[in-house]
């Protein structure tokens, strides 16, 4: 585990094992040896040497299970999305990976480091943006960037200032007088300015206007192009669709599905009114399409519509769709919304 990666010492012994290395003020980290990371521009690495691994990771609080038997792997150089409503277990998973929580059972590692054995070494490899980032209110933006850049072994204040500039942040403003959106920009400049192998971003575009949101997503994709790994949690499904290579769905503490985005984009949803039938059970699906089609109904604008989820090329289905006497037919990519709704209503879709 982590052979060849040296950690000299930590200041204020024990503080880093309990608190966030990034954006939990004040902490210190002064003597961790800087790590040199290679870049793998373009393609996602396979999972033979993953950046993140969890094995049956479980966290309980008395009778309440926050995370249950979660097993996943995140490849080096990919953007991995985490989706789920509040309380699904996303934050518990992230905090367990960083060593802020001790698992009830199971194990996890980041870049070969076990958070319960060498949490400081692990966090020297990670830049983490929490959903409730705390910043020193008495400092100006530039001072905050300098503080965290000097504290972290992968910090570079010039790089952080460049990120702040791209996010259109005035770093001369004191944190106490910043708006919520400005503080989010500052937190992003701190985290994205750290050249760590792994980025963990929890709702990174919260409180940002559309232009800045787009800049943040560009920075995330650029990080991947330089070989960095990104774990990305968001409630904005379009952001996950635009940036992520793979996504995991959590529900009530359980990992219920993983999905390659490239596979999702091959799926389509057909919605229409029909003049001949009113119930999905009345529709006869040819045997040749039976394993590629799911028929249901949905309600839009107080109108019940026939809904057909399809897998793959639509060409073999055109004749069958024509035979259904559909009115106002609309064909669109299935999208994460359909999968998300299905997962959290306990149903199934063709994925």
UniProtKB/TrEMBL annotation:
Residues 52-277 form the ABC transporter domain. Keywords: ATP-binding, Hydrolase, Nucleotide-binding, Transport. The keyword ATP-binding applies. SUPFAM superfamilies: P-loop containing nucleoside triphosphate hydrolases (SSF52540). The keyword Ribosomal protein does not apply. Its EC number is 3.6.3.-. InterPro entries: AAA+_ATPase, ABC_transporter-like_ATP-bd, P-loop_NTPase. It is an enzyme of class 3 (hydrolase). Gene3D superfamilies: P-loop containing nucleotide triphosphate hydrolases. It comes from Rubripirellula reticaptiva. Signal peptide: none annotated. One of its GO terms (molecular function) is ATP binding. The gene is yxlF_3. It comes from the Bacteria. This is Putative ABC transporter ATP-binding protein YxlF. Belongs to the ABC transporter superfamily.
